[in-house]
Records
---
Amino acid sequence: MRLYTILFIIMIFSKSYSQVFEATYRNNKDLKSYTLYFDTKTSIYVLNNTKADKSSAKYDEDSNVIRVKKNVKVGKNSETIYRPKTNSNLVYECVDLKEHCYLFKDEGINLKWKITEITEKFGRFTAKKATAKFRGRNYTAWFTEEIPTMNGPWKFINLPGLILRISDDAFFIDLELQTIKKSSSQKMETLIGEINSIKEIKLVDEHVKIREEIVNEAINKILSSFPRNVKVSNVSLKKDGLEKCFKCEKE
Amino acid sequence: MKKNRIVKIAYFFLLFLFSIINLYSQEISGTIKDSIGVPISYANILLKKSDNIENYTYSDEHGNYALQVKDTGNYQLHFSSMSYAKKIVPIQIIDLSKNIERNIILHYEAMQLDEVIVQAERDIIIGKNKVTFNVKKFLSGNEEVAEDVLKKLPGVDVDSDGIVKVNGKEIEKLMVEGDDFFEKGYTILSKSLPSEPIEKVEILEKYTENELLQNVENSNKVAINLKLKENAKRQWFGNIDFGIGASDQFRYDSQFNLMNFGKKNKYYFLGNTNNIGKNATGPIQHLIRPFRLNKIDKIGEDVYAKKLIDISMESLGFKNDRSNFNNTELLSLNAIFNPSSKTKIKILGFFNWDENDFYKNSFIEYNLPDFSFSNSEDFHLRKKKKIAFGKLEIKHRISEKELIEFISSFNKGDFQTKKDLIFNSTDLIEKINTENELFNQEITYTNKFKERDIFILKSRFIYENSPQNYWINQFLYEDLFSIENANNVLQNSQNKVTYFGLEAHLLSKNLKGNLFEIITGNQFKKDNLNSIFSIKENDFVIEKPFNFQNEISYFTNDSYLKGKYSFKLTSKFQITGKIGLHQLLNRLKNFDVTKDQQLFFINPNFHLQWEFLEKHKLSGSVSVNTTNATILNVYENYILTSFRNFKKGTNQFNQLQKIKYNLIYTYGNWSENFTAFAFLSYLKSHDYFSSRSQIEQNYTLSEQIYLNKNRDFFIVNTQVDRYLNFINSRIKLKLNYFKTSYFNEVNNSELRKVVSSNYDYGIELRSGFKGVFNYNLGTKWKKFEVKSNTLNKFTNTISFLDLEFNLSEKLFFSIQNERYLFGNLDKKNNTYYFSDFSATYVVKKNKISFELSGQNLTNTKVYKTYFADDNSISSTEYRLLPRFLLCKIKYRF
């Protein structure tokens, strides 16, 4: 009996020790905002709600013009990266394609950071520069040891401190820390719960294929939804993604 | 258990392997625990030499860690973990062959982080509702025009048609130093403005026309403002389209845009000429009358003097371009000056010359309660039009919170119409000369006295005069007037309106977004309507029949107090309530007889919007409205409105009351397989103006009568879309229905009921292929029915097939085919086919392209339609522009 109570107390203690933080990042490339929730054991990275227009085709009677808004950037709307265990390189990527969220298992995050001696002041934090190659892009990260976590935004993990800014040399992505503050574990657990509720898990390599299929279908749908006399010239598909290839670093 | 053992063996094996590989490096290992002996997992361990990180690792679930060291020397081990105090342990490595063990205890210490905002000076400055980019850092040097600059900016997208979007939302306008000429037509600018002078780009979110209304007016619009360099060099730029064609005669369609944009002053010239049936004022319509959805800073928008005689040149149910034989020229000159940072002056002006010919041949059968007859009208109409328009806008920022705006506009028009008519084998010539003079002056003062409270004072003066002379070279009205020797008639008429309005408007929005408005004002309007109808023998006036002369002054003064409140119950449920208290003073002066009316009435209005579930959206509104009779309802005596029509009003004061119900339902959006849309509107008038007509072969006398009866008006529009996966196409079903019933009187029929209904249903199929080819085809059946003492009904069918080919990025081709079938016409003449095509070849994108287009390829010469109303059925033939081919070069400089 006595033993049980002691165990119980320890459990409470160890629980109370794990503080949850939330760091918000802005991608300077598209000004979207993301939040990274993390404690010592896990982390989850989510896209904050944006107010982008839904695609629509509307007939404006007064000017006798059809105004077409089209947003076929499927899959960019909700991206969540869940890292269940901080010491492993396994993450789950949840991409909101079509109506439901697809969960992809990504085990191959093999980031080999080169930490340099260069430091720079980022507000009240001192940051060190580190570089890495990852899936076809060259990244430069600034991280601070003052927040000792090896979690990071998106799949940028395993640096010995929180990333304050990270960008690639082609300026495809440029994430910059906006704020960092204490958070509630409840918030993080709700988000993790949502991910855990997804039953079907696919491998990350299938991601590209599925996304392409869905984009194609979306284009077919939007093109066919236009009223008469709406002419569509040039439908181009940008296949540019953050991850250019999946096996390319293993050379 | 067994599995565990295998893992353990593998682990040791790996460890063994590692120790071989790292034969010449030393390992530091140990366990990290907290003060009560619980292992700390995932803690950071950094091996540092002075300040450089030599190596780093993390502890595992059991708090164990291991680190390699490659060189000898003095190091520090940094142990840190969130929620623990950092510990630094110095370590000296002398011998690389010996492993070192360091077990560490970290003490709990909550991390002090009360929201830290990391701010750094960047090329992007994010303010409230405004993002500014210093463009220099984003450019690569090969940008030529503004569009190329916008493309490079974060969050900004420019698609292949030049549509600029910010985070997926299309921009409202593209300004230069806060100035704009083009509104939604901004591609004229973005594709031509040289990129060199652009220094900063501002993205304005929640954009409102009047910047003080931001945060109060609900807006989710985005606009872009380009800021130019201080010493930017001015240069002329623009584009020119030049098209010539072959047909029965020389055909052309050309236009140019020429601009010069400096930091302070901006000039824009536009010219346009064509004889292929196109309306030339289209591109500058928004400059003349800017379209605003909620013009909360405007009054008197519905005040104008209507022309009494207006011979339509429109062909029913058909593209007007096809029957418009024209020769149009337009020149527009516009400028903006900024004499100081607080003052902005905008000047707009245009001249439009137009010559139109229009040919129409109709046969009308009248079926009246007492007798029947038929008329034939065959005419050629020639219209010459000259319009000059000028507008001056001055905006002055008195202070941070105050804005005053002056707008003066002036319009002068001269229209000369000649109609050669063969009316039942009588030759007739009609001449109509119309002039139009308009002067408009607005002064608006806006004061934002609190963050979300705004006061607007609006005043406006309008004067418009439309005199008309109408002459007919024959006297057709022997049955109406027993006058001998009469051989022509003349009517001189004038419709003049003077308006003055003053309104104070207070808007207040609370934090939840609920908007409260109070409006009080006074609007005065004076209409003068004079008409003199003379029956003549050659140049001598024989008689001016008494009942055919008007000299009316109609004064209305409306003093009102209105209140409006929008209340958001939840984000998906909104109620808006409006109430208007009106004190109305009417005065009617008919020659020398004066009548007065005083009246108080209340206009309530109620609107609720409700969205439910995810994909359903339902919104509805109910409104009650009282409107005062206009000048066109109150004049006493007959006015000639066309060669065989005389009309008159009631000579009474009347206010009409109606209730309107609207319901809109939508399901789904384009990305779904199934979408539906329905719109229902029901309008109930408690009283209305109807007509009492006396129809004879050569003339019709028609007077408006006030009926205190109910009139119904019902409209339904529905559309259902279904995406078909197996053919990548969408099928669309449409059903529209309209019905109205009312009473009127014809040839002493007593009041009779007229029920008019029409419905149309159609099916369409449109492909959504990504490749070279796309199609769109469909058919629509339109059924009309009018029931009075007789029943008239007919069905018309319109079908189309459009094909598009995008052969490459440089070559496009499209062809449109249409088929019209008029059910009640004889089989020989009831079907018409049309085919139009266009082909574009882009030589250099955004620079030079060629276009070849052909209209009316089937070379259909005439086109016949069928129409029915409560008294007659008619078939009408229109002459069409013959087949032509047009070759166009589009060049941008």
Note: The radius of gyration of chain B is 38 Å.
---
Amino acid sequence: MFYRPEKLKVYVKRVFEEMNNIGIGSFPIVAIISVFIGAVTTVQTAYQLVVSYIPMSVIGQIVSDSTILELSPTIMSLVLAGKVGSHVASEIGTMKVTEQIDALDVMGINASGYLVLPKIIAAMLMFPLLNIISMVLSIWGGITAGNLSGILTQAQFMEGARETFSGFVVFFSILKVFTFAFIITSISAYQGYFTKGGALEVGASSTRAVVFSCVMILVADYILAQLLLK
Amino acid sequence: MIELIKLNKSFGEVHVLHDISAIFMPGKSNLVIGASGGGKSVLMKCMVGLEKPETGNLFYDNRDFLALDYAQLREVRRELGMLFQGTALFDSLTVEQNIEFPLKMFTDFTKREIRERVDFCLQKVNLVGVNNKYPAEISGGMKKRVGIARAIALDIKYLFCDEPNSGLDPITSRVIDKLLKDITEEFQITTIINSHDMKTVFDIADKIVFMNKGKIWWEGDRHNLLASSKEIPELGDFIKASFFV
């Protein structure tokens, strides 16, 4: 995969195309899940806080910390494992079974480099951006849900959120999605690239890509937490 | 010129190619015929580098294809064109983009030069007005012609066609046959065609190689094919069955 590209210009263009497919194409689903993650976490945290002497701003603190640290990066990546992972595996798998990858090989093009590398680079660039958007929208969702349901005001929410905010947590969150992006695209591309057979096997590869990606995301999540949160 | 010397290929316990030796000359349409499972496709895959034979040699104009390093291999592969049985057109690209693809990857042509070359290739295969269509929007015969146009987009020296007439009606098959013959002679390409179609064999073959059970049983030209079929029962059966079909 890491041989010198035939023409760098073509590869750079491919990276931008994939950034559009993977990044821009995933924005709507990321936006929707993020808003609801924040909203639901706020409502459920308020439901669990039954002691009256705890200030309501704690809800803002819990919601912002948990969404930035865990919910945004991990749930977003699990959802994208389904969307991006299945797309990558089925695209490459279909190309494999219809001999399009053989056609690239016969032309003297490094097929894995041409097809897989731009997807990995694009995902590793776009996932952190999507994660930043997801964090912001989650917090906005939390504030909105708090306001609409009368649980807490925006000021209370932000007071709590600012109290324990740490730049390292944001860095850690971005590091996580950076790792998850690599996991999703590499596993899915591998599953697609080694598809043999026909349409049924493409579907099976796609399913395997999503399942393996999800499991590996959770494993990597745990390992990163163990390594960096001490 | 392509020269094969004692090529052998196995998949596990199954020995698919046995000591295959042959010479294919430029400007000639070389047809490899034989029943399904006889080893034709595996031989073609070995010749284009999609499979690696265990033993033997394969020379492209005296360049030992199996001993080349990655960079040298890529150079030789740029001289190869292949028409796949299922055409293998990139379905996310239009007809025009499919033909442009090798030009953009391997040449420093300007946009205008690329457009001229694409038009030239499409003209060669008698296709007009389909530039912006996707492979899913054109017929099987058109796809084959686009496949040929893509294969010849670069100045290739060797053209491989795996069952170029499969799935086509008899009239379109003759059009494809003529196209392959004309391109081979005009550009002095070494063309190797895997085929079951005896009409193709009698129409365009300059050299015929009959493969059965992974071995070459007979080679010659179309003028002595029928005579030889009486001496080699397997060849005779293949020809007879083809005609009845």
Note: DSSP finds nine helices and no strands in chain A.
---
Amino acid sequence: MNLATSIIGIAAYLILAPLAGGLLAGIDRKISARMQGRFGPPVLQPFYDFFKLLEKEPITVNKVQDFYVMCFLIFIVITGCFFFAGGDLLLIIFTLTLASIFLVVAAFSSNSPYAQIGAERELLQMMAYEPMVLIMAVGFYLVNGSFNISDIVTSPVMAIQYLPGIFLGFVFILTIKLRKSPFDLSMSHHAHQELVKGLTTEFSGKTMAVIEIAHWYENIFLLGFVYLFFANALAWSPVLAVVVCLATYFLEILIDNNYARMKWQIAINASWIVAITLGFVNLLILYFIS
Amino acid sequence: MSYVTKSPWIIHYDGSSCNGCDIEVLACLTPMYDVERFGIINTGNPKHADIFLVTGSVNEQNINVVKQIYEQMPEPKVVVAIGICATSGGIFKECYNVMGGIDTVIPVDVYVPGCAARPEAIIDGVVKGLGVLAEKRAAMDQKPAAPAEAEEKEEA
């Protein structure tokens, strides 16, 4: 991928990702409501929420938490820019981890017990999904001989043909990353009694709006990983990839509405078992056939 | 136009209610009434909330809780008293430990009487509260640079 396409990729991501992410969140809420037999909010509701949060009085527990939350947004956006510029997969994975750590540090800095429980659980969640994410990167390397996303999307082979186990494993941990039940442990909308709002308990107003928009950016490039499994040099493969991304998101909504929240022990055990059985075995087979 | 009326998040606190009104408040969230179609979310966090729904009267035990929840909510905020106990103390008015309605402790914007208040009445009260919310938001714009502490309220 040359410089021009990289710049176009970054510009498109910066402008379109929050719009697409917000819309996706709105469609998510509408579909969830319909699954529960409710009418549901307008599709543009996440944008109303966002602008509402900007209008609220700013209250901060301490000034440093706003700094960390801002870092969270900036590093999420940088990660997405690396991704859509066709950058290095390993770099993307580690900057994403860095961004998540900033959010955790922001929550810890408030000293609120609820935020701390949420932050602790967020760390446990990261422990749960990181092995699978790294296995995914190794899998892409074994198939394409490169960590560069620009090489992966222009490769002659479709990665899913060699990485079906890793794909399923990634969809499994995507439930954690998209903050869906049964693994919405750290900042659930539904855990009032137990967590208040977990990770985001102490964030309000503009700070909360920053977190919302960061999540929209994040969700879009998380679906980008799903895209990578299907995109290759063939002309029709991007269409297939986008369809699979939407289908995956729908599946996550379905799972979200069908499961109650589980304990963090189950989240870690389940995702490590999936990483070992689906991910690692897939890698082994790939290693022996290549 | 103010977005605060399109996305009112609610915090619900049970003062010393008999749970009758609480059940009606929660009934508003069910598929039958579905207040999420107005963008209303029942959040458990005062710092995310715009509308404070209180059921039941205020007594010596929960007076500080009510005050704290109210103070933690960022402006603009609206208080809706649900049920006759929250409005005036109701049949508990004469009790030795009861202060009376919610307005004896914090300013109340909308009263929804009833025993128990019906879900339709509660939704109507919240929608009336939205008008107050919009007015308060407009008032915030008119005096933006009042005291420096109003700009950034910092908590210990």
Note: Residues 50 and 212 of chain A are 7 Å apart (CA to CA).
